[in-house]
Specification:
mainly alpha, 2 strands, two-stranded antiparallel sheet, 294 residues
Length: 294
């Protein structure tokens, strides 16, 4: 069959094929971080993909095909004269492709709940500031030789927390790609600071001092990890790869020092849920972090 002749013979299906190609290529480019510039609050790639998907819906029923046609008598007997079967097959294929496109998880739509995620991140910030304040007051509970070690390991927590809070609010107000990049960089930097502090606190010899230090630091670690998980949920694969590349201290290094029950209690209290549910959420976020290279 002549492909050019077929284009004019089945315009709806041909147009659908072009739009599906545009949508698919846009999705692949978006996943790889290719944008071709920005348009409004999004990118050229995301706009092209979204428009292709929208237009695909508009042509799901070819306007050249009558809304209802009487079924030929011969067709009721199992045979169809002319090209009525080909028209039926064409319409069925077009509908099938449309359904397929609706079922595919489109990368540019993954961030459609970004506003809800941004609100969730901001809602964690009071708990973060409270946990950091607890860290500041913990040094007086430690043995004289241990207090300086603890203070040095947690010295940057206040500045890091304040910057993360500021950037979380900024992203909520104006969720641009640049604001997200700043938030990604800061949450990773803070997560690495906390991981370093945990490793330092684990070396404290005095048992009572170590317990006080670990409880205080882990409270911050739990909240920062929760925020990191939320940020990951609105980041594409290329962005997550960059975030993990900036994380030399991996989860496997700090896992032995994490009190899972303490983390579950913090998460459960924040979301007003049972501890079992919180444990499941933490396990999922940890798996996501490990699979992403953290």
């Amino acid at each position: 069959m002549n492909p050019f002749k077929n284009i004019f013979k089945h315009p709806g299906t041909s147009a659908a094929g072009v739009l599906i190609s545009i949508a698919t290529v846009s999705g692949v480019l978006a996943q790889q971080g290719v944008s071709f510039g920005s348009v409004g609050g999004g990118t050229v790639v995301s706009l092209a993909g979204a428009l292709a998907t929208a237009l695909l819906g508009l042509i799901a029923r070819d306007p050249r095909t009558p809304a209802a046609q009487p079924v030929p008598a011969d067709d009721r007997n199992g045979s169809c004269p002319g090209d009525c079967k080909s028209k039926s097959n064409s319409t069925a294929k077009l509908s099938a492709w449309l359904l397929l496109m609706l079922l595919i998880p489109l990368p540019w739509l993954e961030g459609c709940n970004a506003n809800d995620v941004a609100k969730d991140i901001v809602q964690w910030t009071p708990s973060l500031q409270s946990a950091v304040a607890t860290v500041d007051s913990t040094a007086i509970l430690l043995a004289r030789d241990d207090a300086p070690v603890f203070a040095a390991a947690t010295a940057g927590f206040d500045a890091a927390a304040n910057l993360l809070v500021t950037q979380a609010h900024a992203y909520l107000v104006n969720p641009t790609a640049n604001a997200l990049a700043l938030l990604q960089n800061q949450v990773v930097a803070f997560q690495q600071q906390v991981s370093f502090a945990l490793l330092k606190a684990a070396r404290i010899v005095d048992a009572a001092s170590q317990q006080h230090a670990m409880i205080a630091i882990q409270a911050v670690a739990t909240i920062v990890t929760a925020i990191l998980s939320l940020v990951q949920s609105i980041s594409n694969k290329a962005q997550m790869a960059q975030m993990s590349a900036n994380s030399p201290i991996k989860w496997t290094a700090i896992e032995p020092y994490i009190n899972q029950e303490q983390s579950a209690e913090i998460v459960a209290a924040h979301y007003n849920e049972d501890v079992a549910t919180a444990r499941h959420q933490i396990a999922e976020s940890q798996e996501l972090a490990i699979n992403s290279g953290f």
